[in-house]
Amino acid sequence: MKTTISEAGKYVEQTVTMGSWLANKRSSGKIVFLQLRDGTGFIQGVVVKAEVGEEIFARAKELTQESSLFVTGTVREDERAPSGYELTVTDIDVIQLAEDYPITPKEHGTEFLMDHRHLWLRSKKQHAIMKIRNEIIRATYEFFNEQGFTKVDPPILTGSSAEGTTNLFHTKYFDEDAYLSQSGQLYMEAAAMAFGKVFSFGPTFRAEKSKTRRHLIEFWMIEPEMAFMDHEESLVVQENYVSFVIQAVLKNCPLELKVLDRDTEKLEKMSAPFPRITYDEAIEFLQNEGHEIEWGEDFGAPHETAIAESYNQPVFIINYPKDIKAFYMKPHPDREDIVLCADLIAPEGYGEIIGGSQRIDDQELMKQRYDEHNLSLESYQWYLDLRKYGSVPHSGFGLGLERTVAWISGTEHVRETIPFPRLLNRLYP
């Protein structure tokens, strides 16, 4: 019976064959212990010389790290094994003997590992992070599909900026200027006017010359947009979504969380509703804590960390000053100097994972914003049309996948949360 490591529990005391790679091995006289992996998981194969004979035992002894093989054996229950099972090997069919695999079970520098990212992905820790990433993506689709959202894919090549910033990657689109998308939000607003509730999931690009552990040049975002929904209702969707994803990871990735030594007790406390403080309250708190920050300034990493440390949950900071937020955010009904927006700050120093707001739905006010931000009416006429033809109150948000993976998995740097990270000094491999 051919199967995978993740399915081994279905075949206890039965003989199975698995395609696998050798992650590591150790020998104890007349027994060889093979640490096997196949992409679905890890299992130990035990080769006993007295049971398999000289030829097969010799094959086991000659196996090198990352050699590929078909291994046949009997699945046994083993409480000591991380998965609860091990394999008593009866036969080995070597596919390829790997030579001089560069990532050995010793300490390697970060740059060396990044140069060998295509191989580093095979390691147990990286495997666990990617499995958690996959579960977050799977749970995202489940959540929004169950909530009646339609997935719509915005373009990656655009003729204008979503945020009105200059941090864009420029390219030529035949005889026009084009940019790599920094957000699909504006297009998702158009989609929401057609489908009501929509979400996108795709790559975004920021040409920011940042080297912090929170930043990537290319990253993935989940961007829902909702018609007939105000800011307060959007916050409820956001906290329910994040809670749903956390519970999915706790339920479906216990082995991966264990491999990463993640403190799951902290994650188990993360459930909606999340606490909320205003920008005004956050400024006052920071000033009282000795931070040099004035009203009207945006928060940096130390500020977000200080605020998050006051809670054991993610915390919403709401109602930022208009002048430090994007042109499309709706003004607060009681104050012209602030907007109906929120950033969700993850605990444990992981920073902002969601930014969202209610969008301006008034055509004249949006024209005014165009003037204030020097936006071309020609380039943004289509976006203005959304306020001209059947405008409605609408809200949306964007969640950065890699920061969320880093937080939930307990990974310090976002470069480990994406298969092939693009950093300021890295375009290889």
Automatic annotation (TrEMBL):
It is an enzyme of class 6 (ligase). Keywords: Aminoacyl-tRNA synthetase, ATP-binding, Cytoplasm, Ligase, Nucleotide-binding, Protein biosynthesis. Pfam families: tRNA-synt_2, tRNA_anti-codon. Residues 130-429 form the Aminoacyl-transfer RNA synthetases class-II family profile domain. One of its GO terms (cellular component) is cytoplasm. It comes from the Bacteria. It catalyses: tRNA(Asn) + L-asparagine + ATP = L-asparaginyl-tRNA(Asn) + AMP + diphosphate + H(+). It is found in: Cytoplasm. GO terms for molecular function: asparagine-tRNA ligase activity; ATP binding; catalytic activity, acting on a protein; nucleic acid binding; transferase activity. GO terms for biological process: asparaginyl-tRNA aminoacylation. Its EC number is 6.1.1.22. HAMAP family: Asn_tRNA_synth. Belongs to the class-II aminoacyl-tRNA synthetase family. NCBIfam families: asnS (TIGR00457), PRK03932.1 (NF003037), PRK05159.1 (NF003483). Homodimer. This is Asparagine--tRNA ligase. The lineage of its organism: Bacteria, Bacillati, Bacillota, Bacilli, Bacillales.
